[in-house]
Write a structure and sequence with these properties.
This protein has helices at residues 3-25, 29-39, 44-53, 57-65, 74-78, 85-96, 111-121, 123-130, 136-150, 153-169, 174-190, 207-214. It is mostly helical. The protein has a domain at 67-214. Helix 9 (136-150) runs parallel beside helix 11. The longest helix is centred in the first third of the chain and has 23 residues, at 3-25.
């Protein structure tokens, strides 16, 4: 490993550690997660995760294309047919008050940066399609699902921190926690790769059809 690579890795580790501390303190959660992910970007584990997702031909294809979408038009989504993906996504955004463009941007320089950006861009769509909630447990269910589908390093870290937090703060809930994330992980293993989907080209497709085709029923 050259000097530049070692320097980059060390800076990344510091950034990731800062994110973990912020997350454990419960401060600036979103940016803490991005700090962890950005800090782990050049690790061997992240490179192995990218190699894993690219082992699926349909994911390798979308990575090669560098497919990204324009910011969604909320008003247009609201006019999608009832029970469609677009309509369901609009309801989700209205109910949660989330901004679909809230995510931290990253320049697409290689396969890793593309995958990180695409995952950030479609995070809330994964919530809609899988049905996992946006509360703490729901987010961990989605992370378990992501772990099965992508082996993302940040998912491993967030899962570990969540368990650590639960041991000290909510020990009585650990049984339910493990039951639900185990179910979510198995669903992720069974389902087709969500990362390969061009959701934005089929907003009008029924959400139930998406779930059936992807093995999410």
């Amino acid at each position: 490993m050259g000097f530049r690579s070692r320097w980059r890795s060390q800076l990344g580790l510091l950034l990731a550690m800062r994110g973990m501390i912020k997350l454990l303190k419960g401060s600036d959660t979103i940016n803490a997660i991005y700090d962890i992910e950005d800090g782990l970007r050049y690790t061997r584990s992240t490179q192995l995760a990218i190699a894993y997702v690219k082992s699926f031909p349909e994911v390798a294809q979308i990575v090669q294309e560098r497919y990204l979408s324009q910011p969604p038009n909320l008003e247009a989504l609201q006019h999608c047919p009832p029970h469609s993906l677009g309509h369901g996504y609009a309801i989700y955004l209205d109910k949660t008050g989330f901004d679909p463009n809230f995510y931290r941007r990253i320049s697409v320089e290689d396969d890793t940066s593309y995958v990180l950006l695409r995952m950030r861009q479609t995070h809330d769509l994964w919530h809609v399609v899988t049905g996992f909630g946006t509360d703490g447990l729901g987010e961990m269910e989605l992370k378990a699902f992501e772990l099965a589908q992508t082996r993302r390093t940040v998912a491993f870290v967030l899962f570990g921190l969540s368990v650590l937090n639960g041991i000290f703060k909510y020990p009585e809930g650990l049984g339910v926690f493990f039951d639900r994330i185990t179910t979510a992980y198995k669903l992720g293993k069974h389902a087709k790769p969500l990362l390969a989907q061009k959701w934005e080209e089929s907003w009008e497709k029924p959400l139930a059809q998406w779930r059936s085709e992807l093995g999410l029923e």
